[in-house]
Design a protein that fits this description.
Largest sheet: 3 strands, antiparallel
Structural class: alpha+beta
Radius of gyration: 16 Å
Number of domains: 2
Oligomer: single chain
Number of helices: 7
Strand order of the largest sheet: 3-4-5
Order of helices and strands: HHHHEEHHEEHE
Helix content: 25-40%
Length: about 170
């Protein structure tokens, strides 16, 4: 457990992983959505890449995507979200997770309540829950996360346009 916490136990690492599952792939989108200092984000992303949890694409605006090792952390992230919803969400969960295949809700153990399957991150649709706050103005990531979307589908936020003109791909 100690070694696992050395890798993913730091607050920013877990928030980066959560956002990566939600579809954030660009440095600028992580920085904007998380409000994380750029130097810390640079260090955390490099560490997660070095540990083979995220993969850094090529080019001037590389995407950060999950590796299979990173995707194996979905049950951990889901469990932390579920625990927070149970104990710290007086208005209800911000997001509800359902099995994309059949529309069943995810149980606490990660199985589908309708079909009984163990559901991987790629088979999860995220929907706004009763505790979902309105999206942050000018933040296309918040806008995308306020609607239904399939996990691990990249949120597109093209550069060069004012924030209010950014189209948002909502997965699927």
């Amino acid at each position: 457990m100690a070694r696992s916490l050395e890798i993913v136990g730091e607050r920013w690492s877990l928030l980066i992983l959560r956002d990566a599952f939600f579809g954030v792939t660009r440095f600028s989108d992580f920085a904007r959505h998380l409000g994380i200092p750029r130097a810390i984000l640079t260090e955390r992303l490099a560490f997660l890449v070095d540990e083979d949890i995220l993969r850094r694409g090529a080019g001037a605006r590389p995407r950060y995507t999950m590796t299979s090792k990173g995707e194996a952390l979905w049950p951990v992230v889901r469990a932390l979200v579920s625990w927070g919803d149970d104990y710290y969400a007086p208005d209800g969960p911000r997001r509800i997770f359902e099995h994309t295949g059949c529309g069943g809700d995810l149980a606490g153990d990660g199985t589908c309540t309708r079909c009984g399957c163990v559901v991987t991150a790629r088979e999860v649709t995220m929907l706004p829950g009763p505790g979902c706050a309105p999206p942050t103005a000018g933040d296309p990531v918040s806008v995308a996360l306020a609607g239904p979307r399939v996990l691990l589908q990249p949120i597109e936020t093209p550069s060069g346009l004012p924030a209010d003109q950014w189209p948002v791909v909502t997965g699927g």
